[in-house]
Amino acid sequence: MATATATHQLYLYKGRSRDGKVVEGEMAAATAALAKAQLRKQGILPRTVRKKPKPLFGKKKIKPAHIATFTRQLATMTRAGVPLVQAFEIVAEGEGNPTMKELIEKIHGDVSSGTGFAASLRAHPRYFDDLFCSLIDAGEQSGTLETMLARVANYKEKTEALKRKIKKALTYPSAVVAVAIVVTGVLLIKVVPVFAETYESFGGSLPAFTQLILRISEFAQKWWLAIIGSAVALGFAFTQGRRRSPKFSALVDRISLKLPIIGSILHDAVIARFSRTLSTTFAAGVPLIDALESVAGAAGNAVYRKAVLQVRDDVATGITLNTSMRSTGVFPVMLLQLTAIGEESGSLDEMLGRAADHYEEAVDNAVDNLTTLLEPMIMAVLGVLVGGLLIGMYLPIFNLGNVL
After folding, report:
1. How many CB atoms lie within 10 A of CB 278?
2. For an engineered disulfide with 307, which of 2, 24, 37, 328 has Cβ 3.0 to 4.6 Å away?
């Protein structure tokens, strides 16, 4: 069934309804013949059915935020009593991203033809991971799809909010450092040579600091293309290494957790993600061992992925969750205490949810504090770089009597 749904395409159609009105639109189907058959079932006599042409300038990407919004919209409408198939139509009609709209219409076509919702989602693993599909499947099987959609929507929204906080922590200093490098490069390549030509006409010796800046400027003028090329090559190699080499990716994950300031933020983010994912899956009725399997895939860090898999193996042998987590040595004391309370009181999902809230708030506060602290530090670094270059260039003028 998944193979058939994966080949569905969008078709543009034009025809007449039973009352004689001209209708047109688009729908997902495996072939044009099946599209015509589906239109006839809907009371539409098709005149033309053709494949929807692809856009000339490529498709817009579907981001995780789009999936989160899509899930929330479905959860809201199904809870209000709107049938699932009709909910797809309403969401697709209001979707502004053509690629996301196409995806919704493909899922709508699959569900309309009798395929289960979870099975339709599994045909698009690029956008819906195993955790998402498993939770939807559990909702379908138990008859609580609207409740499960709300839980998945909450989970996706919390996860995306956490990602935005991490990006905020990393983007600002990275952008300022990039600007500092560009400004310094322009000064060394374009401005410093003008001073150098002027000082050559003076004759005499220049201050040591000025000579150092002139040498750096000469090196930058000669090798700036090689420097940029090397930086791009290193960035590409790093990205490919993380994607293709599990060992290299694991090494980067271990090092990132040990970085000053940023490491603690990444650590809290991983713990928040672990707690939120396990709370959501456990509350959905997923068996603990299966839930831990999903959590390992959603951990986002090789160190904790390995630890969660170890916890899963221990739990499978009958060891309690709290004891197995404690034996890994990577989970914080507060999470262990809340887990122990949850196991003893039978409210593990609630305790894990509280842990997730705590660590998400810790990440939020750390990001705000980091931004506040970095602003004066970055301004100081920029002042030293740019001011140092300017002082070095004007030193001979300050000592003009000795130079002449």
Report:
1. 27
2. 328
Residue 25 clears pLDDT 80, i.e. is over it: no
Report the b/e string of 119-158 with b at 16+ CB within 10 A: bbbbbbeebbeebbbbbbbbbbeeeebbbbbbbbbbbbeb
Torsion angle, alpha carbons of 311, 316, 317, 323, to 10: 30
Classify 114 in phi/psi space as left (phi over 0), alpha (psi -120 to 50) or beta. left
Which is it for the CA torsion 223, 225, 228, 231, positive or negative?
A: negative
Model confidence at 341, pLDDT cuts 50, 70, 90, reads very high
Residue 4: pLDDT band by 50, 70, 90 thresholds?
very low
Highest mean pLDDT: which of 135-139, 326-330, 391-395? 326-330
Which residue bears the tokens 């560009």? 182
Cβ–Cβ under 8 Å, residues 293 and 312? yes
Angle, in degrees to the nearest 10, between helices 208-244 and 192-202? 150
- Determine whether 39 is exposed, middle or buried from the number of CB atoms within 10 Å of its CB (0-12, 13-18, 19+): buried
pLDDT at 56: 46
Q: Which of 132, 125, 8, 5 is nearest to 70 (CA)?
A: 132
3-class SS of residue 154: helix
For the chain, first and last CA: distance in Å? 87
Residue 222 burial (CB count, 10 A):
10
pLDDT, average across residues 87-113: 85
The CA-atom distances, in angstroms, between 344 and each of 6, 150, 333 are 45, 27, 17
Sign of CA dihedral 34, 37, 43, 47: positive
Angle at 327 between CA 266 and CA 245, to 5 degrees: 50
d(CA 105, CA 91): 9
Let me know: does 267 contact 347? Beta carbons within 8 Å: no
User: 171 pLDDT band (50/70/90 cuts)?
Assistant: confident
